[in-house]
Amino acid sequence: MAKLDFGPIADTTRRAEIVALLRRAILTGQLEPGQKLNELRISEQMRVSRAPLREAMRELVQEGILTSIPYAGTFVIDVTAKDIADAYSLNKVLDDFAIELTWPQRDQRFFDELDRRHEAVKQATRALDTTRQIETALQLHGLIYEWADNSVLLETWQRLTSRLQMYFALHQRARNEPVPTEDLHETYVALLKGADMRAAQRHAREHIDDDFEELLAYARGLEKRVAKGAD
Amino acid sequence: MAKLDFGPIADTTRRAEIVALLRRAILTGQLEPGQKLNELRISEQMRVSRAPLREAMRELVQEGILTSIPYAGTFVIDVTAKDIADAYSLNKVLDDFAIELTWPQRDQRFFDELDRRHEAVKQATRALDTTRQIETALQLHGLIYEWADNSVLLETWQRLTSRLQMYFALHQRARNEPVPTEDLHETYVALLKGADMRAAQRHAREHIDDDFEELLAYARGLEKRVAKGAD
DNA sequence: CCTTGTTAGATTGTCGACAATCTGCTTGTC
DNA sequence: GACAAGCAGATTGTCGACAATCTAACAAGG
């Protein structure tokens, strides 16, 4: 018998779907930082009772993209320049580690997947789909974490990713520019295929620097931003 | 007027208390890995309805010490040798980073706090309080993370800590020995007070190795362990 | 004018009941 | 005896209603 492995069955709970909906709304910037999430209103919009909604919100609070104050409400996290800088510096350290772990495990399947994800980024770029471009770029970047075969590291990266995606989406929204059309990932992919691990790590660090520089400048700009209630 | 800053007010929701109770039960090993958490039974024991209990469980699932299967139940995570090894190797990387960030910020308050926590470990050791010894040792270890002034790093560490505490508690329980009476942290504390950062980092790595070696051997032993349902 | 106490409205936290789903056993058939 | 279908019990997921708490507006008093 062929050794085909089935993926996990779909989560058939309302809770899971709510989590996905809310997460997407937050990560794409449809829900702004600091904004309050009114349970009654959202539950009515989604045609769902408050119970699964509240459970979903609990999950997102632990995921780090919502924050909750008892009897006051649940809010989208505020984004400060320091948060971004913190995430950024940790990301550098984790990238280094992920590349180190992945390096000896690279094989043809890894290279194929690398190309596939790279292609997805290029496609989103051509289509001028900003949101998707951010998504695919992070997925490309995430491959080294999936390949590193360290479950704790992967989890950590996924938590970090949520915020990174949010930060980038906010940035793009603010700039309101279409999208960079050049390909920033060519060298990254090439180095991951090559033989010099140190070079790949070095490039990853610098690559991250490029991505974050603008982001930080932007974040410092809205540092004085005031959290605004919902409605 | 004196500039005294008030700490945050106590969480007065049942949910928060339930989270604390459950976490403690899991981290001290009172709830065994793989064990199922029956909502009705627990809610009756705690004299609480299922709503806040379920929300609490959602939080702990995201915290990584519970796992949930829709319509099947919520379980304490299984502990495999690989999980421990993964957490351990990541911990080494994070320690390195935390020490690097903390290093230039060390001051008298840091040293005082370091001594305070070290003292707490020694006291728990003298009292032969195993659980508390693990707790205080992790708190001592956590100081470099609190001092690093990187919120994302701190969060990551706290997530990791939950599991580490669980692993160590399980180990201690299995060995059923009182506790090592010697002081393993003397050198660690001394190096953090010293002038050689590299030496401190190197020692941290080796220090972790010592702690984990036993733990790994133990975990490999029960690798064949079968998840057992509740009741 | 500022402060303090009160009150109404809105929102979050919690509860008990019902619906959907799973599990194990029984039954019937071959 | 093996195996599928179906049923009963238990457990999780969801709902609507009620209780606890917060917020903001307003009144009373200094």
TrEMBL record, chains A, B:
Transmembrane segments: none annotated. PROSITE patterns: HTH_GNTR. The keyword Protein transport does not apply. Gene3D superfamilies: GntR ligand-binding domain-like (1.20.120.530), Winged helix-like DNA-binding domain superfamily/Winged helix DNA-binding domain (1.10.10.10). Keywords: DNA-binding, Transcription, Transcription regulation. InterPro entries: GntR_C (IPR011711), TF_FadR/GntR_C (IPR008920), Tscrpt_reg_HTH_GntR (IPR000524), WH-like_DNA-bd_sf (IPR036388), WH_DNA-bd_sf (IPR036390). Residues 12-79 form the HTH gntR-type domain. GO terms for molecular function: DNA binding; DNA-binding transcription factor activity. It comes from the Bacteria. The keyword Transcription applies. This is GntR family transcriptional regulator. It comes from Mesorhizobium tamadayense.
